[in-house]
Amino acid sequence: MEKGKIIFAGVVYSLILSAGCVSSKTQKEIDRKVAQETSINTRQDLTEKTDQLIESAQGLTEKQKTDLVNLREVTRIKNEQLNRESLRLKALLMKDLTSTDHSSNQIQILKRQIKKAEDKKLSNYFDAVSKASRILGKDQLDNDYVLRDFEYRYR
Questions:
Q1: DSSP 67
Q2: How confident is the model at residue 147 (pLDDT cuts 50, 70, 90)?
Q3: Which pLDDT does position 140 carry in this prediction?
Q4: DSSP class per residue in 102-144
Q5: Where are the alpha helices (DSSP H) in 8-61?
Q6: Are 57 and 65 in contact (CB under 8 A)?
Q7: What does the pLDDT look like over 58-78, one tens digit per residue?
Q8: How far, in whole angstroms, is CA 142 from its chain's centroid?
Q9: Residue 59 zone, left/alpha/beta (φ > 0; ψ -120 to 50; rest)
Q10: What separation in angstroms does the CA of 78 have from each of 6, 37, 41, 74, 123?
Q11: Would you tell me how many other CB atoms lie within 10 Å of the CB of residue 4?
């Protein structure tokens, strides 16, 4: 199960930070783990690493492994769709910014839409963490609190 925890170390790191309940010792331990995780530089690196971790994780059933791989794929596809939306909005923002007759009002609206698109991606990712926790039989209370707090603050 220890390898299963590593899969979501980065997410746990953000969740703990955003909840504002990290002790100094825990923060230092997480910082150390993140600094040691130098093999992940691309989405492909992350996919390969999670495949390895899921496949070699002790104590996971075949169903859990299959569910985690499927969850990762569904999350990836949705985030790709959301990323395309965000990129289009960013391109439009740059186009508007560089035009001679740009509109400050339109720029502000585009900035809000970009933030909303990015928030959707993060929300999708957090939702996947909650689902993965359920697949692994982990306690949901801490994750759910952070997710509700995120939704309240940024929606």
A1: H
A2: low
A3: 56
A4: --HHHHHHHHHHHHHHHHHHHHHHHHHHHHHHHHHT---HHHH
A5: 9-19, 24-36, 43-56
A6: yes
A7: 888 999 999 999 999 999 999
A8: 16
A9: left
A10: 23, 26, 21, 6, 11
A11: 22
Structural contact between residues 107 and 96, judged by C-beta atoms closer than 8 angstroms? yes
- Structure token pair of residue 143: 């994750």
Distances (CA, A) of 132 to 116, 137, 143: 24, 8, 11
Q: Please, where are the H alpha helices in 57-103?
A: 62-98
Distance of CA 46 to the CA centre of its chain: 12
- pLDDT tens digits along 86-128: 999 999 999 999 998 888 899 999 999 999 999 999 999 999 9
Tokens 């996919």, residue located: 47
What amino acid occupies position 130? S
C-beta neighbour count of 34 within 10 angstroms: 13
C-alpha span between 135 and 145 (Å, rounded): 18
